[in-house]
Amino acid sequence: MKSSLTLSHFLLVIVLSAAVAFGVVKVVAPAGQGGAAAHKETAFERVMRTNTLRCAYLVMPPQFSMDPNTKAFSGVSYDVVMEAAKRLSLKVDWVEEVNFMNVAEGFKTGRYDAFCLASYRWEPSARVMEYTIPIYKSTTDAYVRADDHRFDADLKAINDPSVKVAIVDGGEASAFIRAADFPASTAHSLPANTDPSFLLESVATKKADVSLSNPLMAMPYLASNPDKLRRIEGHAPIRAYSHALSFGKGEHDMVSMFNVAIDGMHDDGTINKILDKYEKIPNSFVRIKSPLSQ
Fold it and tell me: CA 106, CA 128: separation in Å to the nearest integer?
């Protein structure tokens, strides 16, 4: 009887020892061998640790401008970001000029924490980026030469093979709108990353007949080239888009933090004051109503 109990006890010790050993191995095994992967610092965690927001930017007046001599920044997006950062007790480091085609890639590689241009909250980009609440909105309208009245009565007349619509290849909105609303028209294509003002210039120089642009992009060109082009009036806008700051996919804590700052700037009228400062042509910005608005 004694030897039987001893043997049973011995076997039980072996089983328990193996189970414990297996558990230890499972806990300490490297990530590549089935263990938990090491935590990767999020952009929000890095910003909280350094109290610094690294911004990517795109020069696109009046949203974002750079003085050619002093290199000083200004514009709607610049003022909004600097005010939001002030309210959140953050410094801002303007680290990299980018374009719309490579913004998401910079988030993936961690080169910056935010795209600090108030750009479209656009469905295709929502797969790879997170957006704040809207800062303002803009419309998309048809711009033509000042003496061209072919489309005044009906914008559907643009949808004809004889009509050339200026677009930027790739992910720019004009290409999607032409394909969706005026598919029978002929595309006058410009290379990806072309400055949007060249869409309007293509119409002015008769390389194209129509530019599908928002007033923000058109404003600097029209101010510098009066009487060349006009916005077709008397029709509902072709599109309306919200503009917002953007962050890397999954950065919900960052979005939440900036949403609070932007909401406060709406509530106290700060954003409307910033828009007033840069609106050279009336009704270029579609404002999000403040409780202080009359």
Answer: 11
Compute the mean pLDDT over every residue in the chain, rounded to the nearest whole number: 87
The predicted model gives 19-34 an average pLDDT of 42
Q: Cα separations (Å) of 67 from 57, 162, 210, 268?
A: 14, 41, 31, 29
Contact between 54 and 93 under an 8 Å Cβ cutoff? The reply is yes
Token readout for 274 is 């910033």
CB 113 within 8 A of CB 47: yes
Residue 148 has pLDDT above 80, yes or no: yes
| DSSP letters spanning 233-274 | PSS--SEEEEEEEEEETT-HHHHHHHHHHHHHHHHTTHHHHH
Which residues are CB-contacts of 227 (< 8 A; sequence separation ≥ 6)? 146
Complete domains list, the chain, with CATH: 43-137+241-278 (3.40.190.10), 139-240 (3.40.190.10)
CB atoms within 10 A of CB 69: 6
Question: Which pair of structure tokens corresponds to residue 272?
Answer: 């409307």
Do the beta carbons of residue 248 and residue 108 sit within 8 Å?
A: yes
pTM of the model: 0.79
Strands 114-120 and 52-57: parallel
Q: Classify the C-alpha dihedral 139-145-147-152 as positive or negative.
A: negative
The mean pLDDT of 16-35, rounded to a whole number, is 42
Of 143, 105, 119, residue with least CA distance to 64:
119
| Spacing of C-alpha 78 from chain mean position | 14
Check if the beta carbon of residue 103 is closer than 8 Å to that of residue 129. yes
Of 32, 235, 277, 52, the residue nearest 143 (C-alpha): 235
Is the per-residue pLDDT at 4 higher than 50?
Answer: no
Tell me the longest C-alpha to C-alpha distance in the chain. Answer: 112
Mean pLDDT of 59-68: 93
